[in-house]
Amino acid sequence: MELTLFSKCVFEFIGTMVLVLLGDGVCAACSLKGTKAHGAGWIVITLAWGFAVMAGVLIAGPYSGAHLNPAVSLGLALAGSFPWSDVIPYVIAQMLGGVLGAILVYAFYVDHFAATCDEPDTMLGVFCTAPAIRHTTVNFFSEFVATFLLVFLILAIGSSGNIPMAGGAPAGLGAIGAFPVTAVIMSLGMSLGATTGYAMNPARDLSPRFAHFILPIKGKRDSDWGYSWVPVFGPLAGACLAAALYIIVF
After folding, report:
1. C-alpha–C-alpha distance, residues 69 and 87, integer Å
2. How many structural domains is the chain composed of?
3. What's the CATH number where 125 sits?
4. Best label site of 49, 59, 100, 172, fewest CB within 10 Å?
5. How confident is residue 250, by pLDDT bands cut at 50, 70 and 90?
6. Which DSSP helix (H) or strand (E) runs through 170?
């Protein structure tokens, strides 16, 4: 396959769609009424989100690099590891993939959304994040720190000290690279995710939030646009700091 920019964006679209489908899918499974996983809890959610990212990375990794996240694309570009000309096309593909993934979650759990129509906050929480305690300055800081660690660790995983050599040249991690990223996502979710729901990714939050806005969900509330800037600009700011520190340290 010839890896044109369009083909890379197609894989970013598919990878992000799968990430959101599986990630928001576990949120639906654990929170909507009548599912067999109802009430399974935070550990199940954090584990499943890690595996959701792994699934997206395994699909898109060999072709697009599997950013699956506008903050990652921005951070890699700032660090000099990704061409700036590809950032906007990647972001568009990621955002569209996130919308489709969230729509598929609704279609999959449509009966359980109907059973939960008296809990509009719960239904919104399937699609996007919300703070446990609403304090936007602290919420922004939470998303900033978590995404800083995410992007910095992704950059560190790809540094020369972590890549095996073959014949004097970097061999690359291949599919194995999905596993450390999965562990990072799980660790961040368990340790730093409980305050805001650890969006760390505008395509994981803003895209499903838009899907919630357009879908004909009975009993739904507003899509909480007043908070929506936090899981967008917090991650983008964290990615910028991660890239700057990476340039200094590595």
Report:
1. 11
2. 1
3. 1.20.1080.10
4. 172
5. confident
6. strand 169-170
Residue with tokens 């399974």: 40
Give pLDDT, residue 114.
Answer: 98
Phi, psi dihedral angles at 169 (to 5 degrees):
-120, 150
Cα separation of the two ends of the chain: 33
Half-sphere exposure of 244 (CA within 13 A, CB side): 7
For range 166-185, the mean pLDDT: 66
Contact 13, 94 (CB under 8 A): yes
Identify which of 76, 70, 63, 69 has the alpha carbon closest to the alpha carbon of residue 157. Answer: 76
Residue among 88, 92, 113, 93 at smallest CA distance from 103: 113
Domain enclosing residue 18, as ranges: 5-249
Q: What pLDDT, on the 0 to 100 scale, is given for residue 173?
A: 46
- For residue 87, what pLDDT is reported? 98
Among residues 108, 119, 130, the alpha carbon closest in space to that of 205 is found at 130
Place of tokens 């568009």: 92
Share of the chain above pLDDT 90, in %: 89
Measure the CA–CA gap between 184 and 147, rounded to whole angstroms. Answer: 11
Distance of CA 51 to the CA centre of its chain: 11
- The region of weakest confidence among 2-6, 111-115, 135-139, 220-224 is 2-6
